[in-house]
Fold this sequence. Notes:
- By secondary structure, the chain is α/β, with parallel strands linked by helices.
- It contains 12 helices and 9 strands.
- The strands form 2 sheets. The chain has a 7-stranded mixed beta sheet, with helices on both faces. It has a two-stranded antiparallel sheet with strand order 1-8.
- The mean pLDDT is 96.
Amino acid sequence: MADLPPLREVIARHGLAASKALGQNFLLDEQLLARIAAIPGDLTGKAVLEVGPGPGGLTRALLRAGARVTAIEMDRRCLPALADLGEAFPGRLRVIEGDALKLDHDAVMAGEPYAVLSNLPYNVGTALFVRWLGGETWPPNWTSLTLMFQQEVAQRIVAAPDSSAYGRLAVLAQWRAEARLAMKVHRSAFTPPPKVMSAIVHVEPAAMPDGVSVRVLERLTEAAFGQRRKMLRQSLKGVPGALDALEALGIDPQRRAETLSFADFTALARGLAS
Length: 274
Ligand code: SAM
């Protein structure tokens, strides 16, 4: 196994003071990083997309786990440190300088299936999450997503119906995928520590219910949870056909959005499409 300098030394050597503007909070505990890299299961020989490698802590854990890593990083200060890492694992690390929000990830991965692992700034992480889960084509080319979020957002992603955290993110994440909270990460694990606690969510694609359009489902959840305290007959009034679909499915229009299961939402979306 490659003998690597401690991450603190890498950061000092390359002058990688954490930039607030780039949402940089680094993970330096190699045992913790190895546990994160193990969440998707055996990565030996597998293609992994890592977004935001920074000084490369998670990257080295992924390489040690046997993965072939493609890493997208927009902070060019990190590139020399990542180049050193690439030399320690010949032919196994490809670094792309760029903004992950602007790149086509399937094209970057040349059509090969890939696992995604990432510790990203929370705003970028949420935007990418919505994109990864919102595609019309299913199953997607990614085989799993293992992503760090602010704990409160992670809880909204894995929330079950009839809970206060249940909303658009939960439906997006769970109507055709399995999402679980894989690990809580204390703020003190980061350098510098963020203000809030974090948690890692792991998502794997599941079967897609027939006859449901993502766009129709999104329109429904946007309306239903946009006025989550209101009864469905009020919140869905502006969605053409929604009240008829409720009646046809025998869903009481006096219920509120948070009481509807994932299956209720997909049945409603199917009803609207027809
Ligand atoms: N993965 C490293 C770790 O765990 O220590 C760094 C985590 S730091 C929270 C987030 C990293 O994402 C930073 O290196 C930052 O430069 C990078 N980043 C932020 N926005 C990005 C974007 N849109 N595309 C690619 N990288 C981005």
